[in-house]
Amino acid sequence: MSSEDTQNQISVDLMKKEDLPEILAIERVSFPTPWTEGMFMDELRTEHAQCLVVKIELNGKAMIAAYIIFWFVADEVHLHNLAVKSEFRRRGLAYSLMSLMRGIAAQVGINRQTLEVRESNRGAINLYRKCGFVVKGKRVQYYTDTHEDALVMWAEKQQEEQNA
Ligand SMILES: CC(C)(COP(=O)(O)OP(=O)(O)OC[C@H]1O[C@@H](n2cnc3c(N)ncnc32)[C@H](O)[C@@H]1OP(=O)(O)O)[C@@H](O)C(=O)NCCC(=O)NCCS
Fold first, then answer.
1. Is 102 within a domain?
2. In this predicted model, what pLDDT tens digit does every residue of 121-136 receive, in sequence order?
């Protein structure tokens, strides 16, 4: 995916307040405890948060297909949110957004990435492994809705080279 793919009419843009109704609809079907509008607004106001959306144009109408939010924290990137609209899954969008996150971070000299993922979320765990992440720890009963554990995953440049 390029930042402007004219053949497939795919673009990556900065997330805006006007995108939130569509994002909230994706959020509600993607997570047991979806983020609220206020939580997204907080991210949009946070200077070190990077909030990006993938838009796909179908029949002349652009719709949001995916989004990612990550933070630069010292020399690390922290993934905060990632979701793909159901009808656009398994087409490489999440992988492309993860690659974009890594690329943007590398441009500012950051090569360490981390995230937390529900232990039951096999699809996301597979995605992160494919992106070079490995499990380095566990936060017991981290998710208050289901009391599920979170896996803490890290990717560093050296690991990615080993996994390649
Ligand atoms: C997880 C999610 C973001 C993946 O998005 P996606 O665009 O479908 O993922 P991709 O097409 O880029 O998949 C890349 C790789 O991830 C893995 N993967 C993705 N979805 C998977 C699934 N449902 N089952 C198993 N592996 C999966 C595969 O290894 C895949 O590579 P492959 O297609 O060559 O086998 C998407 O399913 C989603 O939005 N889920 C709900 C929200 C969520 O769980 N977000 C992550 C929170 S930590």
1. no
2. 999 999 999 999 999 9
Count of structural domains, the chain:
2
* Substitution site in 90, 98, 113, 129 for ligand 1 pocket (most atoms within 8 Å of beta carbon): 90
Lining residues, ligand 1, CB within 6 Å: 30, 82-84, 89-95, 117, 121-124, 126-127, 130
Give the CATH number, domain containing residue 77.
Answer: 3.40.630.30
Residues 74-100, mean pLDDT to the nearest whole number: 97
pLDDT band for position 6 (cuts 50, 70, 90): very low
In a domain, 68, yes or no: yes
pTM above 0.90, yes or no: yes
Alpha-carbon gap, residue 10 to 139, rounded angstroms: 37
| Joined tokens for residue 31 | 């997570």
Output the pLDDT for position 5.
Answer: 46
Angle of CA points 3, 5, 7, to nearest 5°: 175
Question: In this structure, are 135 and 59 located in the same domain?
Answer: no
Helix or strand run (H / E) with residue 141: strand 134-143
